[in-house]
Structures are given as structure tokens and as C-alpha cells.
Specification:
homodimer, about 210 residues, alpha/beta, seven-stranded mixed β-sheet, two-stranded antiparallel sheet, 9 strands, elongated, DNA-binding
DNA sequence: AACTATATGTGATATATTTCACAACATGGA
DNA sequence: TCCATGTTGTGAAATATATCACATATAGTT
């Protein structure tokens, strides 16, 4: 079996953060730390940290705290699934290019293997270190390269169409930057990053305080 | 008084979505709709929609549903605060430029009034329709232009420094694209968009299904 | 004018998530 | 060796969020 208890979504989000913070600490020579120290870095409480670590079954020592290396490896064991994550990006506009260039400095274990667009000026070129193909080759490249995650950076009007093709190509996770909710069958996970929405939310909560 | 009951954060997020969907519907000539129709578009349930609208005190008619125009105006009344939202963006790299160009087609009520960087090649130029200033002019421009929201698109190492200057310049809301949590005093609202984290989360949830 | 069918609005309930509070426990020092 | 200290791990309580279930309302029909 893969996992015994379903780990809460929020916990997973924090886990990603913990992992990055811990890797950073390790590179600075920190070998051990307490829940309240990690909490200070992650900007939450020590109870939350301990509860999260409990979720993944990690334990530390009451007086020494947590072993950084061991904790990183435990968290990675949870986050890094069984199969490799290989990503396709569709829509090589400004945002698409920005994301490509951001990931050129190969993020740990996350590789954008191919980009797709319908604009002939972009097709068959290497853009920010990533080869750009025409959408007509989408299905064949996805299966050829074993791609299982997708990023959508096309305009809203085309987002659902692209999502449908991703689903048909057996992509299991989609990160959607278009400002529309996508309809996908169960078993496909979608996350949306909506910059305009975030700004509106920001404006709302910045007002009160 | 501004608001009587604190509206749940999640409700606000959905409200932003509703508003956009409704504006789109209105432009297509839809005058009235039922909660289950909005729910279908927003990808949630009719109960959720009704509960959300209850939150802002909007009511409809059992047989006609909700009046689109009236609903848009009610939601806007909640979301659009008293003062105008004027935004500064710091860090004119790939991501920063992508965001600038995205907002050039002036999103409703959200204007990026100025961009800032320390790179002399970018300073004093107009980039994607937005004037770019040197960071040394940050404080003066913020107050001169009445900017109250900030977007951080600098590398992780400088993010906290930029946030500190934003806070000092009395910016009340910060949208942070750098992969580090920011420490800010109470009263300042921070939201983080972390693309790498989102991909990791995606990878995790795409695995199970 | 009364009836019917279909939505709304919302108290009550269920679920998810966070926080509290404290017993159990290691470690360094007396 | 035993104690004092400060941390872990976690049941229980609190809070936040979503869903259920149904009484209430209203427009069209007869």
C-alpha cells in the first residue's frame, strides 16, 4: 500500500515549505532543530509543526529536537511519489516563458520537459531552455516523454480545450493559470493560480485590519 | 461601520470568482440565474453559492433566481474597498514582466502604477506599459502615487528586504511570488503564490487519485 | 383565487483544521 | 544516580468551513 491515512491538503502544502526550509538549513550546517524553530521560519506555531510531523509519522527527541537530514528524507518520502514528475507547459506567452525560465535552473525533481503552442514563430524553437512543439504533436510527445503533469498558460478561452487534451493524454495533474475553473474527470487533480484573483483578495483583506 | 460580520476568507475567494463569472454572463446577455447555475460554472454546489450570497446579504427570488446586475454590484460593494487599489511591482525579471504585460490590458480596478528594480538597464524605461523606477525612488513614488498594494517578484534572498521597505512605505497588502514566507507586522496582509510549491503539491495529489 | 412545481434562505449538522493542555520523556548537571 | 528543565506527542476542545434538510416564498398555470 502507498499511504495508510490520507494526509490533509493543508499539511501537504506546509510540508513542501518545511522541506525547502530544511534543505536550506542543512546547507547552512544546521543538523538539528526544535519544532518552534521550524515554526518561526515557516511562520506558524510549534504545535502545528509537531502535528504536521505526526501526520507523516516522524518523531524527534524531546531534548535534541528533530534531525534535519532525517526529517528531509521523511518529508521527501511523502512528497516525492513513486513515479517521476515530468511536466508539459502549454501556452508560451509572457507568463509561460517566465515560468520556463524560472525552471531552467532545474528545480529539484521538477522538470518541464516540453512546451507547446500553436504560434508558428514559437514552434520548433528552444525557448528559455525548453523545446517548444506545435500542439498537433501534443499527444505523441506526452506519451513519448512520459509526461504526467501539465501547466496551462493559455488565455481563458482556450484553457478548457487544453485541459481536455491533457486529460485525454492521461496527464494526472494540471496547474491552471487561466482565470477559469476547469472541468475534469475524477482522478485528475487541478490547482489554479489566479493572479488577478489573488490581487482582489489581497485588496479586500488589506483594507480592514 | 464598514462590515458587520467578518466574511470567511474562503467565501471571499469564491466571491472573486463569482464576480468574474457574472460579468462574463452579463456580457453574454444573461440577466438572471439560479444558484445551481452559478454553482455549475464555479464548480461547486448550489448550497455553497446560496450560503456565500447569504454572507453578503444578497437575496434573490425563489422562482426567478438572482438578478445578475444586482448581484455583481452587491459583490463589488463587498470586494471593492473604500479606497482605490494602486499597485507597485518590485522585481522586473521574467516573472515581473509577465505580470506587467498581463495587467497592461487593465484589469477591472487593478492597476500596476509603477515597477521598481535596481538594474540600470531597466530603470527609467517603460516595460510592458509600465514605468520602471530605481529602488532608490521607491518611498517617494509610493507616497506620490498613493500606492497601497505591492507585488514582490524578486529572488528569495531579497524578498524580505523588499517587504520591509513596502511595510515602511505603508503598503497594506503584499502579493509575494518569492518562495519564502515573509515576516510582516500585524495589519499587513500577505498572500504567497509559489509556483514550485504548487507543482510539488500537484505532483503529490496527482499520484493518488 | 387556489394550486403546483421549483428555488430560496437558513437552523442544524457534519466534517476539516487548528489550537489547547498536559502526560511522557530524554538530556545535562548536581 | 537522580533531579530539573524544556521538548515531544497527542487526546480533547475550539474554531472554521461545508453540507443537509426543510420550511418558506413566488411565478406561472388552471
Amino acid at each position: 500500500m502507498k499511504k495508510t491515512t490520507p494526509i490533509p491538503a493543508r499539511t501537504i502544502e506546509r510540508m513542501v515549505l518545511y522541506k525547502r526550509l530544511l534543505i536550506d538549513l542543512k546547507s547552512k550546517g544546521v543538523h538539528t532543530l526544535f519544532s518552534h524553530q521550524l515554526a518561526a521560519l515557516a511562520h506558524n506555531t510549534s504545535t502545528q509543526v509537531r502535528r504536521d510531523l505526526m501526520e507523516i509519522g516522524h518523531s524527534g527527541s524531546p531534548r535534541k529536537g528533530y534531525d534535519v537530514t532525517e526529517l528531509i528524507s521523511n518529508i521527501s518520502g511523502i512528497l516525492d511519489g513513486s513515479k517521476e514528475r515530468i511536466i508539459a507547459l502549454v501556452g508560451v506567452g509572457n507568463l509561460g516563458r517566465a515560468i520556463l525560465s524560472y525552471f531552467t535552473y532545474s528545480h529539484p525533481g521538477l522538470t518541464i520537459a516540453a512546451a507547446f503552442d500553436t504560434d508558428e514563430n514559437k514552434v520548433d524553437r528552444v525557448i528559455s531552455g525548453c523545446r517548444c512543439f506545435h500542439m498537433s504533436q501534443f499527444e505523441s510527445k506526452i506519451s513519448e516523454m512520459n509526461i504526467n503533469l501539465g501547466i496551462i498558460t493559455v488565455p481563458a478561452a482556450q484553457a478548457q480545450y487544453v485541459a481536455d487534451r491533457m486529460v485525454a493524454a492521461e496527464i494526472r495533474g494540471i496547474l491552471n493559470f487561466a482565470p477559469v475553473p476547469l472541468k475534469v474527470p475524477g482522478g485528475v487533480f487541478v490547482d489554479r493560480i489566479d493572479i488577478a484573483s489573488s490581487l482582489e483578495k489581497l485588496a479586500y483583506f488589506a483594507d480592514l485590519s
